[in-house]
Each structure stands twice: as structure tokens, then as C-alpha cells.
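Researcher: I'd like a structural prediction for the single chain below. Treat it as a standalone chain; there are no partners to consider.
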Amino acid sequence: MRMTVKGDAGIAKMRQSMKDTRELLGELTEAMADEALELVAQGFEKQADPYGSLWKEKKVDDGRNVLVGKTVRLRRGWHKLKISATKWAIEPSVPYASAHQDPRPRPAWGGKSLPRRAMLPFGSRGLPESWKQAMADTVETAMKLSFSLGSFGGGGGMSMLAAKMAGMKRSFSIRVIVQRAVRESTK
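Model: Treating it as a single chain, here is the predicted structure.
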């Protein structure tokens, strides 16, 4: 983005641009957290880790999917956590998720552990291709919306931030737009 700064008006314009960029970054990272939640949900549907390996079956078949107990808290309890204005994370609502994500030997079980049934990618393996592509698509969509729709010098119309300020709120979020685009492209 190119900007000429002349006098107080130029400085005010630069400050507003920086503020808008920070807000965009916050919305972008929130959209990526939404995408990560969707990817975790897909893992539960497929009963597979982010790399595509199927989770080990339950020892006792009770008619429910793997990692789905009576309460369904592990599957449905994933949520976003706002860390700062520009940082988001996702986390499960139950503490025992880590026992499946990264199992450890348990003395009470004679040193045995649960089978690994990962719901998130491992730092040591990096992001799987499906997660990389989903995140890249989210970033690309956000950039197209923000930079081509207005406030950052694009081709007219209303930017994501301007639409939000005008009262469109979450109905104009990246996640909703991406979901609609995916639904329409698969029809």
C-alpha cells in the first residue's frame, strides 16, 4: 500500500490506516481460529487425525463414534479463546483432551497409555496440507474482501470493517462468506 503523508491530515490518514490494519489482523486471526474449529470438527466426523490417519477403534463398541462419549463434551466443547486484539487460539472445554492428543503412560494402568487420537496437528510434523490450504484460503478471502472492497484503496464498495461498523456485524464475517462459497461451489 502506498501512502503520501502531508501535514496533519496525512498523519491522521496514516494512523487510521494502521488502526484499520490492526483490526483486519484481529478479524483475520479470528477467522483462522474459526477455520481451525471447523477442521477439528471435520476430524471428528472422519474419526481421523489432521494428517488423515484413522483413530484407533474403541476397545468396546458401544455404537458411538471414537472419542464420542455419553456427554459429547470432547467433540462439541472446542471453542475460540481471544488472547489479544490480534491473537486467537482454540481449545477444548475438557481437560482430558490432552490424554488423547498426546497420551502418556499411566502408572495406575501398569505403564500403559491411551492410543493417540490427535485432534490438532503436531508442532513436530507441521501443518498438514489440508490445514495449510484451508488457512491459505481464509487469508486469501480476507485479503480480497478487505483490499478490493474499499477502505484500503480498492475498487469501491464497502470494506469488511466499514460493513461491520455500519451494523452488519458477524453476518458479514469471513467464515460465513467462505461457508456460503463452499456450499455454492459444491452444488
